Amino acid sequence: MKDSTKTLEHRLSRIHTALRKEQFDEVDEIMAGLEAAEIALMLESLPPVERITLWERVPVEVDGEVLLHVHDEVRSTLIDDMDPAEIKAAAAGLDTTDLAELFDDLPQLVAEDMLRSMDELQRQRLEETLAFEEDSAGRLMRTDSIGVRADVSLETVQRFLRWKESVPDNTDALMVVDRNGLFVGTLPLARLVSHPPEMAVADLMDGDVKSIAMDMPTREVATLFQTHDLVSAPVVDVNGMLLGRIVIDDIVDVIRDNSEQALMNMAGLDEEEDLFAPVLPSAKRRAVWLGINLITAFLAAWVIGRFEAVLDQIVALAVLMPIVASMGGIAGSQTLTLAIRGLALGQISQTNSNWLMRKEIGIAALNGVGWSLVVAVLAVLWFGSIGIGLIIAAALVINMLAAGVAGIAIPLVLKRMGIDPALSGSVVLTTVTDVVGFMAFLGLATIFLL
Q1: In the predicted structure, residue 284 carries a pLDDT above the cut 80
Q2: Alpha carbon separation from 188 to 154, 163, 213, 228, 339 (Å, rounded)
Q3: Contact assessment for residue 398 and residue 436, using Cβ atoms and an 8 Å cutoff
Q4: Which end of the chain is more exposed for a tag (fewer CB within 10 A), N or C?
Q5: Could you tell me the domains of the chain?
């Protein structure tokens, strides 16, 4: 991985230098050795002007594949730089599934023109794919699966495959269907070539293969592939009719996209955020969450203001106050991160959330007591006041307990409300730990020290 990263950085540096010096022969030489996904990464790694220059030198035959690999925001800027003929040429070589992914981003007139230019079968397949929800198995599936009947011999299947002369990529098994097209199982290719040709498909097929419903969310499909080590899986409709298949290379893209989404959302950003987007739109997007954070900061400041009298009399409280909020924030962030990950992987449900809550309360109690003793001793040594030491110790325990509870409760509540926990959980958690921490510390000081 380290060597590949160095190679990527080296290529990016070479392309950046060559573009700046207008050494286009060297740019073309570098591009010739890159896959579509690598070209897409190069485009995402360049400022807008250099990006367009490089895009104009991308080989026409891979334009469509490159557009599929770049993020939506970058894709829009690239398509805006293309004329309708170029867009149609780029999309012409894509299969139905890939074209459906790209179709929503095409200019309306270009999309309508492409539909008119398709034959009836192509248009029907594309419209059927577009009819599925965007993040569903139906939208992700490929329609190139090979179906065979259970009552035929292996020899018949082998003759059929020789007649086709090829099988679709990532085909590890053939789909077995009945005479009505209902999915009944799979025939692994390894069994097809390693058993006597006179044997029937029914004798060797796997009849307990789990099929994927056409409306299953892609996140759940990815989990299914991970847990069962699948290379491909059949997709069926509500009646069990075989519609197509999903293959592992599409799932790798889903897993990558989900990981990027979780990472960006935890910072309050869109997963399609373009690193090299212009300043103004980038600033606008980030300003939303900065504004929300400002509101929560004023809430914490208001809590502090309610204890102005005690802060005026005991300056040491102002010095120690950030420690309580900070320890609670870190403890809560640890729990929140684990909870969001568990929700994303489908590991947390109503049946085990109470157990997790008790566990986090236990962890918070142990860490709270342990670290509160350390902080109390340091506070006494620093300010020479046992009272202040006891107050900060008690406040720290209270805030860490609140952080543990909030770290589990916040993502569960947000998910039930239909809000992505990764997008807003950290903002809510920060508010809770700041308010509870300041309230506990200054409130106890007001009661016992004044």
Answers
A1: no
A2: 11, 19, 21, 15, 38
A3: yes
A4: N
A5: 2-135 (1.25.60.10), 147-265 (3.10.580.10), 279-449 (1.10.357.20)
